[in-house]
Every structure is written in structure tokens, then in C-alpha cells.
Amino acid sequence: MTRRPWRTIRRFLLRGDRLTAVGGMLLVAGLCGCEDAPTGTSPPPPPRNSAEVLQHLASAYQDRNLARFTDLLAADFVFEWGYPLDNGATEWNRDIETNLHRRMFDPASIPADESPIQQDLWVQSIEASFTIASAFVERPDLYATAQPPGVVDPQRWIARSARFQADAFFQLRGETDFAPSGAAEFVVLEDRTKSAGDAAKFVLHRWEELDQGSTAKSEERGWSRFKAIYMGPRDIPEPRSNPGYAIERLLQSYRMRRPDPSLFAEDFRFLRNRPDPMTGETSWGVVEERVLHERMFDPAVVFPPVPEELRLQSLTVAFLRQHGFVERRDYYATANPPGPLDPARWRAYSAEYRLDAFFSLQGATDYSVVGGARFVVVEDRAAPVNGPTRVQLYRWEDLSSAIVVAAVAPASWTAIKSLYRAPPIANPKPDGGP
Predict the structure, then answer these.
(1) Contact 279/272 with Cβ under 8 angstroms?
(2) What contacts 15, CB < 8 A, 6 or more positions away?
(3) What is the pTM of this model?
(4) Distance CA 376, CA 321 (A)
């Protein structure tokens, strides 16, 4: 397709039902002879491998062909996005994905009992590309035989995943076009019961948006925010066990430098990346965690006082989820050996994240943290669905290490957080060493 000259290309940020556009003008050449109706090109043959599923996905977008789009989705397909809705939902299912694309691809056919799509948002044409960034690898952690168990039956399916750069250009009727873009991990299932070339031999199991919290730009450009524009009122995901919402709260707590004490479960533990060289300590509990965040974020009101040289001037932080959350049944009292949680009340989930941060302090030394973490989040099914203690952080296992970055002092999360524990540690070593 050719794009209209002097079109406004905007990135966007969705807040509830309000769309705030930001961005500027992009000079593009040519005239558009596009129509609003979806195109009807001949369907390609079924995907013959995992990578072809993404090629077919791009083709279905470009042709705005709902039948071909939904044929690519597994029955238990999940779109997992980086930014939760106001009710805490961080994913939606195949039904919601199908319905919002029905409304996106063919808004003129929306039934009278559904809210219409405003005509400025009617799609005229789509360019889409999914560029592979890492090779497909098998995901045995998703199988029901894994520990903790996944949801995929390995007797029928082979699960593979790869990272892609997902880019698109949506030309709309109005004066604003949209270009969602971002990193994503796609999980594709191969059906062992089907022969090569059969329909649905390869299907899309998960689309995981990976740009969570990396920069403001990534939030403005995310696929999830754009897709949500086309949701109908009945498509909003119901609140459920949303472990990613707890991590989003943690990210916002750091970004806003504001403690969030209700985020941490009463039996929360922070697991150090290495034992304390003086005491042998390997973890600390919820009281220490809450206090150190109060001292880090609000040093003027705590006692003993935080040294001036450790007081924050600015803090830049990014969380990037490495894989989706999985249920941790080994934490349940019914496990062997028994865990601490009653499964009648609690659900436990874990995921690994990459956590990068830059701490600019009032003193002569700034600190850079580059590394990972494994979070365990619990859902209290006895708590109110939208309450602050419905999902809480239960374990934070520090997987980071000290990595030299430019002239800034390297630090692990264990070390940087230890600076703010009470009482202050004398002459702390940011690398966690003696």
C-alpha cells in the first residue's frame, strides 16, 4: 500500500476509556486508494512450521481476514500484555482476541446491540511484520509433566517459543494513524496427531508482550494499548489471578519513589543473591523490606536518618518479563514435601524478570543494577477481587550480580537494598562482597 502524504503518525497511551495521543508529523509519499472493507485474497496453505505461523499472522492482519486470523489461534490461546487494566487483568483469552479483531477488521458489521467503533478509527489498511529475533526452542517448562506443572499436554503437543519484533502500521479513516511496535514472545504448539500440511498442525498458544516498563516510549507504542481500543464493553477481561499486576505495582512504587506496604505478603521473604559475609544471612522478611523502602524513598521522615550521600536524586528502573507466570504448586501444603500455603485459599505463581536500575544519589557515587529476579506472587482468594491484598509479592529472589557499567559503581539488588536497611550498614560494599 502507499501512505497518504503528511499523515499524522501518533503513538498513544490508553487510560481507561480515554485515548491521549502524543507524537508528531511523519512525511510519507504517495496517495492511497484503499478501501475500508477487508480484502479477500486467496488463503495461503496451512503453516508448515512454527515460523510460518507468524508469517500467516502478518498476512491475516494485512488482509484483515478474521477467519484466517482465528484459525491460527489455539483453543487455549492467551494474549499476555505488559500493562494491566484498571481491574488488574494482564491477559485475555481467545474469545476476546477474536472479538476485538472482528470489530477492528470489519467495524461496519458490528451488531446494533454493541457499541460502535468511531469512524475515525476504522481501519483502511494494515502493514504488519513479525521479525524473528531468536530461534524457536522447545519449552518443556510449559508441559503438564514439568515441575511446577504447565498446561500443555506433551503427549499431544510440542511447545516452542521464540522472540520477535512485532511491528505494524494501521492506516485509519481519521487524521491519526497508529504504529504499534514492540518485542514479543510467541509460543507455538505443534499437534503430534496431525500430518505435515494439515490445517492446525501449528497453532499460536501465547502472545506475550515483553516491553513491560522498559521506557515510556514502549508503553505508548504497545500492541496491548492499541488492541484495547477495539474492545467492546463485554470484552474487558474479568479480574482473576493476575500475578503480573503485583510486579506492575512494584515497578510503579520504584518509579514514583513511593512505598507500597500492602504489596508485600505478611510472610514475604527477599532471598539474597549471596549470603551476608559477616552474618551468613540468606534472606530477610517483610518488616525489613517495608522499612528499607521507606528509607530509600522517604529518607527525611525515618529514624535512624539516612546518610545524605545515600539520598536519591533520581531513579530510573526497567522491568522486563522473561516468560509468563506459571503456577507453583510446590508451595502448597498438598505438595510432597508440603509447602506453606493452603491451596483452598491461596494460589502461587512465579516468573523471572530482568530488572535494570540506575540510582543517582546525592553523594559522589551512583549505582547501576543490571540483573534478574525470580518473583513468586500469591493470590488470596479470600480477599476482595479488586482489593490491595488480592495479589501480593511473596518471594523476591535476587538473581543479579555486580556488572561494571561505565564509571558507575556496580551493584546487585541485594547490595543496593542493603544500603537502606536499618540500622545503616557501615561502609557498605555495593558488590555484596566483604
Answers:
(1) no
(2) none
(3) 0.55
(4) 13
Q: Which residues form the domain of 139?
A: 8-235
User: Can you tell me the distance from the alpha carbon of 349 to that of 242, in angstroms, rounded to the nearest whole number?
Assistant: 9
Regarding whether 363 and 265 lie in a shared domain, the answer is yes
DSSP character at residue 230 = T
Q: Which residues contact 387 (CB under 8 A, 6 or more apart)?
A: none
Please state the φ and ψ torsions of residue 211, each to the nearest 5 degrees: -90, 20
For 370-411, write each residue's pLDDT tens digit. Answer: 888 999 999 998 988 767 888 999 999 999 765 434 445 567
Same-domain check for residues 212 and 260 = no
List all residues 6 or more positions away from 367 whose beta carbon is below 8 Å from its beta carbon.
358, 359, 361, 408, 409, 410, 411, 416, 430
User: Residue 119 and residue 3: Cα distance in Å, rounded?
Assistant: 19
pLDDT in tens, 315-355: 888 888 887 788 999 999 999 999 999 999 999 999 999 88
Grid cell locating 281: 544471612
What's the grid cell of residue 247?
510486579
Cα separation of 289 and 395, whole Å?
A: 11
